[in-house]
Each structure stands twice: as C-alpha cells, then as structure tokens.
Design brief:
Elements lengths: L1 E5 L2 E5 L4 H11 L4 H13 L5 H18 L7 H14 L3 H17 L1 H10 L6 H15 L2 H17 L11
Antiparallel strand pairs: 1-2
C-alpha cells in the first residue's frame, strides 16, 4: 500500500492503479498554491528518463486537470508554458502523447486561454520547440469539441487585428 497525507487526510492506495487513484484524490481537494507546486513538480517528472515514471506523472497531471481544470483559469499561462517546456525535452512517445492529452484537457476548460498562450509563444530557434507548438495546435484542432471555437477565434483575429506591413530593405 501507498500511504499519503492529502489536505490533512490520510489516503491509502493499493499498488495497482496508484497513479490514477492519487490524481483523483488530489483532484478532490481544492486547487491551491500547493497544487500549483505539485503541478510544477509534475512538469519536471514528465522529463524523467524512466518511462514508467514519466507516463505515471502524465496520468496524475491529466487526472488533476480533467477534474479541477475549471479552477485553473488564472494559471493557464503558467501551465501551458510548463507543458511546452517539458514537451521540448520529452523523448518517449507515450509520455509526449500523454502530455498533449493533458494540454487538450486544459483546453476543454479554457480553450481560448490555451490557444492564446500557444499563439503568443515565441518560436525559438530550436526546431523541437516549433514542433512542440505545432503538435499542440494540431491536438487541439483535432478535438471536435474545440475546433469550432478555435476557428472562430482565429477568424476573429484575422478579421479584427491591425495588419502591420514590414518594409523589406534590400542591400
């Protein structure tokens, strides 16, 4: 058994299925600064070299976001930035897919907030970072519940943003 103290309560888990049970238990308590610290540690855990550890971390993080994502509105920029940073260095496909699912879970609660963060994310010179942002946008666009909101928002940006023309200097 795994025994943890969560929000002042003692919680015991049998070994099998521990990550999901832990994420559900954590989601039962309110999202607080302690939970944001927990999510920050999970971002680090996503980059663990052991597949079982990194994929278990995905399950826990995704469970928390699914259950308590509505309460994370103020933390969307921080969460998106942390997920993107983690994805830049994830090597395992299973962990990458799980992390993308977590981002999509966050978007089901805060679609426009997640989309805005992806759109304003500077595309670093590193190809892996650009690929991470593109994969993230693709995952959101493939979700039928999100695609209409995304298209409407992008159309609004195109129709209502001021166009800036940059003069190209020729030498």
């Amino acid at each position: 058994h795994l025994i943890l103290v969560v929000s002042g309560r003692v919680v015991a888990f049998p070994q099998q299925g521990t990550q999901m049970q832990l994420s559900l238990s954590l989601s039962l308590s309110s999202v607080s600064n302690k939970h944001m610290n927990y999510t920050s540690k999970c971002m680090e855990g996503l980059q663990d070299s052991q597949l079982s550890s990194s994929s278990g971390t995905c399950v826990m993080l995704n469970g928390l976001v699914k259950a308590r994502g509505e309460e994370l509105a103020e933390k969307v920029p921080e969460l998106v930035a942390g997920l993107l940073k983690a994805m830049d260095s994830i090597k395992e496909e299973k962990t990458m897919n799980g992390t993308l699912h977590t981002l999509r879970s966050l978007a089901t609660h805060h679609c426009l907030g997640v989309l805005e963060q992806l759109l304003v994310t500077p595309l670093a010179h590193a190809t892996s970072h650009r690929e991470t942002v593109v994969k993230s946008l693709q995952v959101l666009a493939k979700d039928q519940a999100l695609v209409t909101l995304i298209i409407d928002h992008l159309t609004d940006i195109i129709n209502n943003s001021q166009v800036l023309e940059e003069e190209v200097r020729r030498h």
